[in-house]
Amino acid sequence: MSQSQSQSQSQDQEQPTARKHTALPKARTLIEALPWLTRHQGKTVVIKFGGNAMVDEELKSAFAQDVVFLHHAGLKPVVVHGGGPQISKALDRHGIVSEFKAGLRVTTEDAMDVVRMVLAGQVQRELVGLLNQHGPLAVGLTGEDAHTITATKHQPRIEGELVDIGRVGEITEIDTGAIEALLADGRIPVVSSIARSQDDHHVYNVNADTAAAALAAALDAETLMVLTDVEGLYEDWPNSDEVISRLTATELEKLLPELASGMVPKMEGCLYAVRNGVHTARVIDGRVQHSILLEIFTDEGIGTMVVPDAEGDSTT
Ligand SMILES: Nc1ncnc2c1ncn2[C@@H]1O[C@H](COP(=O)(O)OP(=O)(O)O)[C@@H](O)[C@H]1O
Ligand SMILES: CC(=O)N[C@@H](CCC(=O)OP(=O)(O)O)C(=O)O
User: Fold this and answer.
1) Which residues form the Aspartate/glutamate/uridylate kinase domain (predicted)?
2) Whose alpha carbon is nearest atom 15 of ligand 1?
3) Is the pLDDT of residue 20 over 80?
4) Percent above pLDDT 90 for the chain
5) Which residues share a beta bridge with 105?
6) Count of beta carbons in the 10 Å neighbourhood of residue 1
7) N or C: fewer beta carbons within 10 Å in the chain?
8) φ, ψ for residue 156, nearest 5 deg
9) Which letter does DSSP use for residue 230 in this model?
């Protein structure tokens, strides 16, 4: 072998080694996710995408990428979406006054038509479109389809009095058949929070956090992830931005009466989920790009994690 031949051979040998080194941080990142991915293989993960985290185009695309990543990594993601800000805008355009009582939208018959049009015809279609940019994966449905979510009229109690807030539903039954068939077929179900009515032939408006929690429990999901527009549950909101990183069901139950506005259905949903078989429920910051992957790819996680009281091996 000539000297120049042996020189070029040794250069050739060095190059792949150098390339391997530059890719090492990427490999380490993937390996850090390995225990999480192993534990979640074949498991159902319900992800609630909130209206306020959903107003930015780049965030929406990154969200779709994260969900498709989970799907390809062997998990079974189910997306439940809200659309509060989008509904408020549409009601405004229709000249329908929108108000909230006990954290829920007072929904007249006319408002219900707009809610259904926005959630099923606009927000859900957009999410399905974004997910399907990555392949024939997402199928949209509402709780009306195949009796997925059934509800009866919800009347919250405000200062001891039952209050009529129109067509707002309280979930009475979940039929997971359609979602499970889609998951078995390798699809990603995208569910709008509208329920079929148990009382008449119309539909009900259901808070999307509540719908996601009920579905997570009925599907026996491993995890419920609620994306929102804050870092997580603040300990002393609005006075401090100290995020509670982990709390048990009982600790959360004690905190519930102190919570305000949008956090109420979210944390009630997390509590319901972990008390009904879901191993962890997390509130994470949907304003951060790829927040779902960040939650998985960092050992400590981000946001707030709620765990059942009797902690087993499955609580991390
Ligand atoms: N303890 C708390 N920690 C964090 N946020 C809180 C707390 N209490 C009330 N909030 C409010 O809840 C909001 C999140 O709920 P919401 O606006 O309904 O979100 P989404 O549109 O994602 O469903 C936050 O932006 C914040 O204003
Ligand atoms: C009864 C009730 O309040 N329904 C909600 C449904 C959408 C929702 O929950 O959207 P976010 O998750 O974006 O808040 C509403 O009409 O705004």
Assistant:
1) 43-285
2) 262
3) no
4) 72
5) 100
6) 6
7) N
8) -70, 155
9) S
- What is the ipTM, given to two decimal places? 0.95
Give the residue carrying structure tokens 């959630």.
119
Shortest-distance atom of ligand 1 to CA 233: 3
SS3 235: coil
- Answer whether 224's CB lies under 8 Å from 213's CB: yes
Residue 298 backbone dihedrals phi, psi, to 5 degrees = -115, 130
Determine the atom of ligand 2 nearest the C-alpha atom of 115.
16
Q: Please, are residues 130 and 117 in contact by the beta-carbon 8 Å criterion?
A: no
Residue 277 falls in which region: left (phi positive, over 0), alpha (psi -120 to 50) or beta: left
The DSSP secondary-structure symbol of 107 reads B
Q: What is the pTM of this model?
A: 0.90
User: Measured in angstroms, how far is the CA atom of residue 208 from the centroid of ligand 1?
Assistant: 13
Amino acid symbol at 202: H
Output the six-digit token pair for 218. 């009925």
Q: Which ligand is nearest to the CA of 264?
A: 1
